[in-house]
Design a protein that fits this description.
Aminopeptidase, eight-stranded mixed sheet, alpha+beta, DUF535, DUF535 family protein
């Protein structure tokens, strides 16, 4: 069992690093040299992206240096050469278009620090390298197998540090991207995006819903996220509003489009609006007794309840064994 007070204290110590002392000992200089050598030596990226990296680092020197130092001094050092987006993360909108670069730095550091604490450094490194962590396996109406897995995707990394996905075989059907964060002594989850498969999305989701006894894949993932949050003793799940999504920022306004109706999705799951425009999702869904269901639908609802309970138990066992 994790001691959350010790975890919070460790995080506060991390945030309280003395900048002047680090400069004096050369720690920042070494981290800067490392970041530049890794980023500029990468043959997979264009000259334009390297120049932009230098310009953005120069525009926000203190925040950039602190992020490079965090990467350089933690388990992320091995992952950065394979994932250039880790170095660029501090320069791009993350989770919510409203947050400033200092808040972005805090959220990024909290997420990666907490991920290693919650799942172990080895498991977290494996997810950074492209492996997924299967939390539960469920069987649909037609005896088709689905799995709920944690993974990190290059396509969704601006919306969250991790993604929770519903897979059928190797095909990703739907996912929710989120990050771990701290609020005082409490552990939080912040959801930054919802994604569907790219090809034949409407037909695929319709067939999947039918095979899951009428449960929409996105609502099943929300329930899986709630189960994950409860097992990890999170105190809240903050979900992004459409107007606050990172692709609503000026940087992506003309290059990205948002198809998901975020606000109605969170509201349908029982979330309430927050002062910043986002939504707070309750940790437990409101269960309606089977006796109050229409008599001609009770068999289907019984199957839904069985599928959901099996998923919750699978998530619990996977986290205990992790």
């Amino acid at each position: 069992m994790l001691n959350w007070r010790e975890l919070w204290t460790a995080g506060r110590v991390l945030e309280a690093i003395d900048t002047k002392k680090l400069y004096a000992t050369g720690s920042f200089t070494a981290s800067l040299r490392w970041a530049l050598s890794v980023r500029l030596a990468d043959e997979r990226t264009s000259l334009k992206s390297k120049v932009l990296f230098l310009l953005r680092s120069s525009a926000r020197p203190q925040v950039s240096l602190r992020w490079f130092h965090f990467l350089h001094q933690t388990y992320l050092r091995k992952a950065a050469p394979r994932d250039m987006a880790l170095l660029d993360a501090i320069h791009r909108p993350f989770f919510d278009r409203q947050i400033c670069c200092v808040s972005r730095l805090r959220l990024l550091r909290n997420h990666f620090h907490l991920s290693a604490q919650l799942f172990g450094r080895r498991r977290t490194q494996e997810m950074l390298a492209g492996s997924d962590f299967t939390l539960a396996t469920i069987v649909g109406k037609d005896e088709q197998n689905y799995r709920i897995s944690l993974f990190r995707s290059c396509a969704f990394q601006r919306e969250g540090g991790l993604s929770l996905g519903l897979f059928q075989g190797s095909q990703l059907l739907q996912s929710i991207s989120f990050s771990f964060d701290r609020k005082g002594h409490q552990l939080m989850i912040r959801v930054g995006g919802v994604q569907s498969c790219k090809q034949n999305a409407r037909e695929t989701m319709r067939a999947c819903t039918k095979n899951l006894f009428g449960i929409q894949p996105r609502l099943l993932l929300i329930e899986a996220l709630r189960s994950l949050a409860r097992e990890l003793h999170c105190t809240g799940i903050e979900c992004i509003a459409k107007k606050n999504h990172i692709y609503q920022s000026w940087r992506y306004r003309f290059s990205k489009t948002i198809k998901a109706e975020y606000d109605s999705l969170w509201q349908s799951a029982g979330a309430c609006a927050l002062a910043n425009g986002n939504y707070l999702l309750p940790l437990a869904s409101e269960d309606v007794p089977l006796s109050e269901r229409p008599s001609n639908k009770r068999s289907e609802y019984r199957s839904r309840d069985g599928l959901t309970m099996g998923m919750r138990e699978g998530i619990r066992r996977s986290l205990v064994a992790a």
